[in-house]
Amino acid sequence: MVIDAPVSLSAPEAPAALPVRPRTGRFLVLGAVFVCAACGLVYELELVALASYLIGDSVTQASVVLSVMVFAMGVGSLLAKRLRCRAAVGFGLVEAALALVGGTSALVLYTTFAWFGGARYALVGFSLAIGVLIGAEIPLLMTLIQRMARRGEGRDTSGDVADLFAADYVGALVGGLAFPFLLLPLFGQLTGALLTGAVNTVAGGALVLWLFRHELARRERCLLVVANVLVLALLATATALVDDFERAARRAVYGEGVRVAVQTGVQEIVVTGGPDGRLDVFLDGRLRVGGRDEHRYHEALVHPAMRGHHARVVILGGGDGLAAREVLRYPDVESLTVVELDPDLVELARDDPALSALNGGAHRDPRLRVETADAFTWLRDGGRGGRPYDVVISDLPDPGITPSTKLYSQEFFGLASRVLADGGRMAVHAGPLATRPRVYWTVDATLRAAGLRTRPYRTTGRLSGFVAGPDRDPGTAVAPRDWGFVLAARDTRPALGLAAGAPRLRSLTPAVLRAGERSAQEARVPGVVASTLVHPRYAH
């Protein structure tokens, strides 16, 4: 896609020699503009999506990609001036280069991340290269479409400019919609980018080699044929090998024990290890469940909130069933609702032998009911009109992750407090306190701004030391060594302890909770303010 690329409105000196009438030729050029614009936007979205997945913080990555690409498009438009005298062959070579660079961008980004540990420089490099090539398209196409006018007709070329940009913008719309609704779910990020490159190659090469073939010298025709064949061959080879590449890259990132790898409509789920206690679950590259230490996290999240009446419990998130396992250990729990966005994660947690064994078959307990919904929307609907809950447990991704920002907003916690019964408690996973103290205390401030009384605490002793994705300490490849939580209630400050009838726990005791509360208070960050939907304040 091109935004206001500079073009020349001066008429060419000679009309193009075309195999079709000028009107038909204009239609074919506009069709090529449409296809190339769609491909260009797919490349942009692919970079943003993959960078957010590999590096994290989608707002920053989108800003970097889009700003660098728009700048580079202006540079490409200026550089295209040197090609206008050979516009046909120039456009053909630009499209071949764009198809190769854009089509393989996701593959190379994933390669740099998997084997070299980072992808930032590759991201900026591809943003620049793709932007320059996209920026060169419209000036060259404008030159070609003007050459279709007969000499001396005195046509107003402003109509050509309007048609060209209309085709460009409509193509961008189609590409922008095709990426999330067609390419990503059907083909995935890597294959989707490679197929887009193939379409780009065919559209650009066919237009020049057929429609403008009479303007090309024999050497230029041979050059374009060879370039396009090579690009198609490389893209086809990469497509044929992409499954093997993905398996090798996953092994490089997650180790040799990858057992399940699936791209759902919501996220990528990777399961490593097995029932020997070393099972790990990664969601979009982030370690969500570490089999060696998950009990520390889930015991600290669930059991302090169960002190008091707990007949009705709701878990926001937690499709893996591990928080549900802890809740269902209380025989006096009458009903448990799990609000999970990804039904495939629930299915995996129920049917995968290792994960089902780890969660104690929680999804087969008749007291558990799953609501497939976004937690924010579900709360806004008033919990689908049900009775208030004695306990609300927020088992959601870290607040520092951009897609989770609304789930840690003042509005979200305000909605959650509305479904709490009188005397009910809410437990919130608030991210690691040791490495992201400002994020943690922003959660606490946001809960208080929503009218809740809070009790911050943490638990340490994290054993899972490797994190593959962006949810890791800056500059390292190890997980944070603690988990931070906040216990909240609507009317009075909640007591931090365990229920009188609490089951026997592996790591959590009243003494551990008291130490965790003292440790959290010692790390307090003063002056933080609440995060809202219109003013999110979470940052790593």
TrEMBL record:
Domain of life: Bacteria
CDD domains reported for this sequence: AdoMet_MTases (cd02440)
Keyword set, alphabetical order: Cell membrane, Membrane, Polyamine biosynthesis, Spermidine biosynthesis, Transferase, Transmembrane, Transmembrane helix
Active site per database record: 395 (proton acceptor)
Binding site for spermidine: 298, 320
Residues covered by the PABS domain: 233-481
Localization (cell): Cell membrane
InterPro entries per record: MFS_trans_sf, PABS, PABS_CS, SAM-dependent_MTases_sf, Spermi_synthase
Transmembrane segments: 27-55, 61-80, 92-116, 122-145, 166-187, 193-212, 224-242
Keyword hit for Lipid biosynthesis: no
Record-listed S-methyl-5'-thioadenosine binding positions: 267, 340, 374-375, 403
EC number: 2.5.1.16
Recorded catalytic activity of this chain's protein: S-adenosyl 3-(methylsulfanyl)propylamine + putrescine = S-methyl-5'-thioadenosine + spermidine + H(+)
Principal place of residence: membrane
Topological relation to the membrane, as annotated: Multi-pass membrane protein
Function comment: Catalyzes the irreversible transfer of a propylamine group from the amino donor S-adenosylmethioninamine (decarboxy-AdoMet) to putrescine (1,4-diaminobutane) to yield spermidine.
Xref: NCBIfam families: PRK03612.1 (NF002956)
Family that this chain belongs to: Belongs to the spermidine/spermine synthase family.
SUBUNIT field: Homodimer or homotetramer.
Protein name in the entry: Polyamine aminopropyltransferase
Gene: speE
